[in-house]
Each structure stands twice: as structure tokens, then as C-alpha cells.
Design goal:
The structure is a homodimer. Chain A has helices at residues 3-22, 48-64, 69-85, 111-127, 130-145, 167-178, 185-203, 225-228, 232-248, 252-269, 298-315, 318-334, 367-392; strands at 34-35, 41-43, 46-47, 96-97, 103-105, 164-165, 214-215, 229-230, 281-282, 296-297, 346-347. By secondary structure, chain A is mainly α.
Chain lengths: 393, 393
């Protein structure tokens, strides 16, 4: 099979048309993300994560695929909405707002700011707009300022058990590359070093080879629900961020360690009974607090496809490609909706559709198109390489 | 089948021995609630809801079943733990603490206070201890003071969409009867009137006959995720609180309306494919935010058994008994663990065990023993009534 064409065609002829057709709010700007199986809007609330992520997606594709003015217009709609309605008076981004932009849920969650910064940065590259560039920078430094207490007054945990979470260092390792255009190279290198160290030395456990979701600041483990928690999709996603950094730094050791970690997490979290990757696991095998632990989520599988494609592109190991094939077959046969386009988001353990939606509070125009783009580009290189080797034979 | 004996025997010979044997922390006081299928402790954190609920259960059984000194000692252990480690300096109850009692999660959740108040009140009845009686009263009035902003500074919702939640008025309708011994009858009657009005006029929707989890303060509906949310178990549980109040007030109209509502909710939320009652539903049939929506939870089914037993006790309607039989057969064949005792808590939609535990963050020594006790007592009356009718024939 020609994978690069599959991913390219799906991105350009299925995924993007779906969001172009159904998600645009022509009245108030920004995007609807609560779309049912057919693309019909079933709720009009706007979740800031997803506003930022969709604005980023269309800006990124404009920058890296095609200077399509329609894509830029769609990106602008989200960027304007975020600028006008996304922030409180202190410049922190809300979690959600109404269709018109009235604040609904306070800025308790710093990832709203991360995805807004990504959107501003890509849009600034597309338009060369200095004001937006400045906004990307301000948002980024505001995130760094909040890094030790990202939830602010909404933090419910006391200081009794000072665990640190994986999400923020993980996101930073991707965000900083997204913001290369607006940050000094000194700042970029500093944050890369910080996040690689956090991900590979603090959160990646030497003994088990698994990435823990919460650890003590020195990386040691805490025998509690949060301390035992594994989020396989997060761990695997972070590894393709590490491969990107490895490529940038020409650090083949980092690429190899990331590749090994992907395989290790997959072996540990693949559901041997029904296929697919578990959403959450407990490192000691104890019962979890997350009732949704055994479900199969779209983003987990798409991030794994990206990670395996990149790992194969750079290592050419058969073991990596065998896993790629396995995850590919599961994902494309279970998540892709041939009838109505786009991908389902949530399957039960058995692989049946659990929520009949294409978008909601957490699923928007992001993981599917980003993975399609990343896999397309990786397979283009993989296939060109195979072609070259054939010619050399 | 003699149901009263089934419930009595299960309570006294299976459920209580399980918690007596495995849950007592003889070192630091209070209870372990994270117990695996065999009763082994897999986590030592103490969740204040469950500390209060277990102290209540053993106090209540001491008061209403048997003056068993062992039960009183178990109750005392939890009451002492709550007094010593449960509260912050302002008298608000934490959500969770460590095994030793160090605070872990702040008092963002007022239900900790509700279950502590219930425990103090029952324990005060058992011991006639004035200090504990006073503590029950103080805790109750602190809850009333916080009623308009129960989450305090941890409230993440803005005032844009002022929805009110069902849980608090629902709990109050039960809590106030639990606190009859320590409150003035004026206070009791005021809170009964308030909560009956809230439950039956504000949250119970006249048009659909369903109880909504979140409504606008005047009871009108909001077309949003929270505004469309149904929690069938909550609605049904509240109806047996209404029946208790109906009995107390000799209000047969209230008992009949509660009975009709139980049947209506059951018809709407029974899973016609796999049996059991859904955990969450969307009133418009849209996709939910709750990924666990289709799971079958122990407490939902136990509260339904109590509600149907009470409804049948007071109305003797065949339709009620037919539903009772259906829920009984599903519940006893799916949740009860004949091999290791007690009940499983979480099943997937298909009715298979999802989490192999007897207790955790939310499941403790409460719903199972309370339902066993309530059903035992209801069926004693139902069976005595049948016997009487036979003799009169």
C-alpha cells in the first residue's frame, strides 16, 4: 500500500472538507466543535483548547502544504475569536466560552494558553503580523510564569504530596518548536533542554521503561492513585516530540531511546483480548479511578501512528514497522468513518462506537489532521528511501 | 422467595463481616476503603465521604438493628478520625487525607461535610454524647451557609450560565431526617419543605417526568451539556427520600408522585440491549461528555431496589413489583460476588466486571449495607401485609 497517498488524500479530501463544511461559525467567528456523526452541530459552546487547535491546524497547513486563502481565512476566524474573547483581564485563557464568547469556565487549565500560543505563532508565520507574533510571545512567557502552579487558586491538591504532572513538560517540548519563529534561539534551546530532561530523565522510568503520568520532582515514584497512573497515549505522543528534537539536534541516541520507549509502552498497553491501546493503566495493576480506562480513543491511536512512522523513518527497524502495521489495521478499521467522513473519537473496549460524534468537548480539528499530515510526510520519506535503495540495488 | 431474609442475611452474614474484617485501620483509626476483590487493601488514602459514610452505617445499625459494641467501636474510630483530621481551620471538611490524616485534597466538595454530619448525628444518638451532637449541628449549619456557593474559591464556572445542581437539595432531603435528633422541629420542617419543593417542583420536569441534574434556578432548562444531563440513579434515589418524607407527613400524593417518577425514569433509562440502568444520559439524546455514561454502577441499582421496595410497600402496585423483580434479577446476578463476598461496583455496559474492586475512591461501606437494611425492613412489612391479607381471606 502507498501510505503517503492514503494519508494525503484522507487529509485533503475527507478530513479538511469535513471541518470546512461543518465547523465554521460564520455568525460569531471561531468554530463549532460539537459535531455529530454527520457533522451536525449539537452544542454551540466553544472550548478554548479546540479553538486554538483548529486555528493552529489551518495556519500550519497554509504554511506547510498550500497557500490556500480559504485556510487562512478559517485560521483568522479562530485567531480573532481567541484575541477578542479568549482571555480574562490578566491575560489567562478561559477553558470555555459561549458561542458569542461570554466566559463559561475560568482559566483553571493552562493548556488553553498552550494551544492559543501555538495558534498565534503559526498564524504569525502565515501573515507576518507583528502584533500576533508579540501575542504568541506574551502567551508563551505567561505559561512559563505559571508553570509551578498552573491551576492557580483552582488547585485542589494540598502540598502534602507534591507530585508533578507529565502533561506540561511534554507539551512544552512540542510548543517550543512551534514557537521557534518568535522566540530567541537561546530561549528555544533552554526550553528544549529542560523538557527533554524532564521527559527522558524524570518521567521515563528506567526500571520499567514506561512513562509515568505523575512523579515526585526528582522522578521517584509515589505509591498512590496518581503516582501509579500510566497514560500510554501521552507517553507515546511525547516520544515523537523527542524524535523531532532528536532530528533537530542530530541526536541519534535520543531517537533510538524514544523508539525503544514507544515499543515498550505498546507492548505494555496493547489490549491482547480486543486489540487497541488502553486509555489508562495502573503501574501496579491495581483498580483505577478512571472509569474510562479500558476505552479506545482516537488520539491515542493517531499519535501512535505518527510516533511509529517517525521511528521507522529514522531507524528502519522491522519491529517498528510490524507494530505500525498492527496499529494501522486496528485504527483504520475501527475509527475511520467511511460513510460520513472523519474519525470516531471514542470506542468501548470491544472496539464499538461509544459516542456517536466527530467532535465534542475534547475532540476537534487537531489530532486527526495533524496525524494525517505527519504520517503523509514521514511515509513520503520512507517511500522515497525505499525507491532509492531499489535503484541502488 | 423470602426477600426480607435474603437482605437481612446478606447484610449480617456477608456485607458487614467483609468491612469488619478488611477495612479497619487499627493503626491510625478510620477506614481503608480501597479494597480489592478479596478485601486486600490496595491503597491507603482516606476519602472523607467514605469515612463519614462508614461511621454513619455502623452507628445507624447500632441504633436500629442491634446494640453490638463492636459496631459502636468501629463507628467511634471513624468519628474520631473525622474530628481529629477531617476539617481545615475553618471547619470545612477535606475531600481526602492520607492514611495518617494529613490533608490531600482541599474542601472543594461540600458532600464531605454532609456525610460527616450524618455520621455525627447517628453516633450522637448511639452514645448520647453532647459534644458530638453539637458538632453535627455546627456541621449542618455550615453546609447551609455554603449552599449558594458550595465549592467556594474552587468554583470554576463563571456566572454566565447560572445553573443549579440537583445533588445538594437531594442530599438535604435525606440529611435533614438524619439530623432530626439534633435540630429543632422548626428547622427540620423548613428544610423538608425547601428540599421537597426543589426536588419535585424545580428539578422534576413536568413535561418529560424526568429529573434533571442541572437546571436554571426557576427550573427551566438550558440547552447545554450540563443542562441536558440526566443521572437516573440520582433521580430514583431522591424519590425514596421523597417517599420517606411522604410517610412522615402522611402525604400519599407525594408518595404516588414519587412512585410514578421512579417508573418513568426506569422506563427511560433501562438498557434494552444488555439490561441494567445507564449511569448518565442526555435528555436530547446527544453525545455526552461523560465517557462512562453506559456503565452499570452498583449504587444506581441498589438505590433503585430500595426505591421500588418502598414504593411497593406503600402502593402495592403490580407494575412496581414487576420492575422490582427485573432490577432484582439483574442486580443480584451481576453485582453480587458469591465467591468473595460484597458487591462489585463497576460493570461495563455488557454487564462484565470493569474494575475488580469492592471499594475505592467512591465505593465504601454505605450503599450496599444501607440498601440491604432498607430492603430488609420494607420487605418485612410487605411480607407481613401479605400474611395478614391471607389470614383475612
Amino acid at each position: 500500500m502507498n501510505y503517503s497517498i492514503l494519508y494525503k488524500d484522507t487529509l485533503l479530501k475527507d478530513i479538511l472538507p469535513f471541518w470546512e463544511r461543518y465547523s465554521i461559525d460564520t455568525q460569531y467567528g471561531g468554530y463549532f466543535t460539537c459535531l455529530d456523526r454527520n457533522g451536525k452541530v449539537y452544542d454551540t459552546d466553544k472550548f478554548i483548547w479546540l479553538q486554538g487547535r483548529q486555528a493552529w491546524t489551518f495556519s500550519m497547513l497554509y504554511n506547510r502544504v498550500e497557500k490556500n486563502p480559504k485556510w487562512l481565512e478559517i485560521a483568522k476566524s479562530g485567531v480573532d475569536f481567541l484575541r477578542n474573547y479568549g482571555r480574562d483581564t490578566e491575560g489567562n485563557f478561559y477553558f470555555s466560552v459561549t458561542q458569542k464568547g461570554e466566559p463559561l469556565v475560568q482559566p483553571y487549565n493552562i493548556f488553553s494558553d498552550c494551544f492559543a500560543a501555538m495558534a498565534f505563532s503559526q498564524y504569525a508565520i502565515a501573515t507576518n503580523d507583528d502584533e500576533i507574533k508579540e501575542l504568541a510571545k506574551t502567551t508563551y512567557f505567561n505559561i512559563l510564569q505559571r508553570i509551578d502552579n498552573p491551576k492557580g487558586k483552582y488547585e485542589k491538591n494540598t502540598s502534602t504530596r507534591p507530585l508533578v504532572g507529565f502533561s506540561l513538560p511534554m507539551i512544552l517540548s512540542n510548543l517550543v518548536l512551534e514557537l521557534e519563529g518568535v522566540l530567541s534561539s537561546e530561549e528555544v534551546n533552554k526550553t528544549i533542554d529542560y523538557s527533554v530532561n524532564q521527559v527522558m530523565e524524570i518521567f521515563l522510568d528506567k526500571k520499567t521503561g514506561l512513562v509515568f503520568e505523575n512523579v515526585q520532582p526528582d522522578g521517584s515514584h509515589d505509591n498512590s492513585f496518581n503516582g501509579r497512573l500510566l497514560n500510554p497515549g501521552h507517553g507515546i505522543e511525547a516520544m515523537w516530540f523527542m524524535i523531532d528534537i532528536g532530528v533537530r539536534k542530530r541526536d541519534s541516541k535520543l531517537i533510538n531511546r524514544a523508539t525503544e520507549t514507544i515499543l515498550r509502552i505498546l507492548e505494555h498497553s496493547w489490549d491482547k483480548d480486543y486489540g487497541g491501546i488502553f486509555y489508562f493503566m495502573d503501574a501496579s495493576g491495581y483498580p483505577l479511578q478512571q472509569l474510562e480506562w479500558d476505552q479506545k480513543l482516537w488520539w491515542v491511536h493517531l499519535e501512535t501512528l505518527v510516533a511509529l512512522a517517525k521511528a521507522y523513518e529514522h531507524t528502519q527497524k522491522d519491529e517498528v514497522f510490524n507494530w505500525y502495521k498492527k496499529v494501522h489495521d486496528y485504527s483504520w478499521s475501527h475509527f475511520s468513518d467511511a460513510e460520513n467522513g472523519e474519525w470516531f473519537g471514542y470506542l468501548n473496549r470491544q472496539g464499538e462506537v461509544l459516542l456517536n460524534l466527530k467532535g465534542g468537548k475534547w475532540k476537534g480539528c487537531f489530532h486527526v489532521p495533524r496525524a494525517m499530515f505527519q504520517c503523509w510526510k514521514s511515509f513520503e520519506k520512507i517511500e522515497a528511501n525505499i525507491q532509492k535503495n531499489k535503484l541502488n540495488d
